[in-house]
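Suppose you are handed a protein chain with no further information: no name, no annotation, nothing but its sequence. What can you learn? This example shows the usual starting point.
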Amino acid sequence: MSLSESEVARIAHLARLALTEAELVAYQNQLSAVLAHVEMIGQLDLRDVLPTTHAVRRENVVRDDVVRPSLDPADALFNAPETAEGQFRLQAILEE
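A reasonable first move is to predict its three-dimensional structure. Written in structure tokens, the prediction is:
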């Protein structure tokens, strides 16, 4: 499919683009080439191709949650500079 110069000018107007005559001719050729490619794609036999939401297969790679024993609180706090009530004690970083 080949676009006319007036059709390209109309598309440019709809897109709020101010094009020179040279740009109209250049875009006429480029848009016509794109439409020709789309026509070629439209001729493909895609009856056996399943619809997809992504170009490549996507799958969840996150592991399953498994309940298991965790680090003992005393071991976790062993090297902490300060602790309070079984938790790490940190210096305040926000002014009051």
